[in-house]
Amino acid sequence: MPSPTTLWNQAMIDRYDLAGPRYTSYPTAPHFAEGFPASEVQAAIARSNASQRPLSLYFHIPFCDTICFYCGCNKIVTANKGRAEPYIDLLHRELALRARQFDRARPVRQLHWGGGTPTFLSAPQMRTLMRLTGEYFSLLGDDSGDYSIEVHPGRMAPDTLGVLREIGFNRLSMGVQDFDPRVQRAVNRFNSVEQVSELCQRARREGFRSLSMDLIYGLPHQNPDTMAATLEQVIALEPDRLSLFNYAHMPHLFKSQRHIDAGALPPPADKLAMVHHAIDRLQAAGYQHIGMDHFARPGDSLALAQARGEMQRNFQGYTTHGDCDLLAFGLSAISAIDNVYLQNHKDMVRYAQSLAVDGEPACKGLALSADDRLRRAVIGQLICHFHLDYAAFERDFGIDFKRYFATALASLRPLARDGLLRLDSGGITVSAGGRLLIRRICMAFDAYLGSQEPARYSRIL
Predict the structure, then answer these.
(1) For position 17, which CATH number holds?
(2) In this prediction, what percent of the chain has a pLDDT beyond 70?
(3) Looking at the whole model, is its pTM more than 0.90?
(4) Binding positions
(5) Is there a single domain that holds both residue 180 and residue 318?
(6) Average pLDDT of every residue of the chain
């Protein structure tokens, strides 16, 4: 069935809009521990190979030639293009390492290059990295996989799209953020409507089957009128998917944000007005509100996967390939192998040294307990599908759901009284007015949240 309409309930947003995880993983990354045993990694890889699940590959390309002040990603800002070549050599080493550990027959259903700005690489370097990937892993040669790349539309020549399509990419994600010139100057990120339009047209001619755009609300000098204008320009470009992210100003965590004038940030009421208008306008334009900050056209594979009950969530966000084991390569990249999470070193020197000395680039990890796996499944079901059936979990996990989660369900009763969800004898159903607060609902099932934990996270809206 199609995704229901999301309804705005200002009173409930005022009551429940707090900080919390985005749940691209459970447990979340702050709970990964250093000194993770190599034996745990090897055992997880053995279970992964025995399962014969397909693979998803992620490559973190950290380089940017200019700095976007709002960015909280792990990045290296440099104009020196020569830094890319030794990094590809490091990725080559990591590819060779993982290829020795994983069954080559397992197909790569999903592949993603993120960053940073992956198109910082030259065309020959991009061809080399994809060729090496194909030498070590079983890439699909029939264009049936979801192979995507993030691009900065203001820093990429249209001809680059031909190279990307040639080497196998069929999905394109553009970080538009905002078209207003004053906002762009304030965050040092520039891309005009004309540039993005040209890239969209060229991408469609090249045969990319999905175009996605990212917008950010809450940036300096934004207001409801400027954001509405950007949104109309984006809708006219007809992306297949659209993400609308909340800017979280945390200069104590992200140095680049210290360049932003906090006095120019829009007040909370304006931020809420922006997202309220955007949700209503996008739904009126025919987009389905997939969940949280993601929208898709009804015929997009993500919307279809949600309608079939197959959409899942992982470190790349909502996905149609949650059944894959995720192998992540490069600086700070996070893998999900069977019931183990692994994160690579965030520092380039340590990342390089680890590959040279012991061949293992991961510095942190976490083995999920039975309780972790159960709670991950509960949170994933709610955040993707807004409904949970007790009987299904009792069958799959051998528990009495209402007894096991008695504390969590008790904490949800006030939200049920406020109409954000329905608790009945058979399960949980999130209402149209509760969908915007799904992160708050999922937090009831999070066993790791402590009194200080929300300070690490952005607000829900």
Answers:
(1) 1.10.10.920
(2) 98
(3) yes
(4) 58, 64, 68, 70-72, 115-117, 150, 177, 189, 214, 248, 334
(5) yes
(6) 93
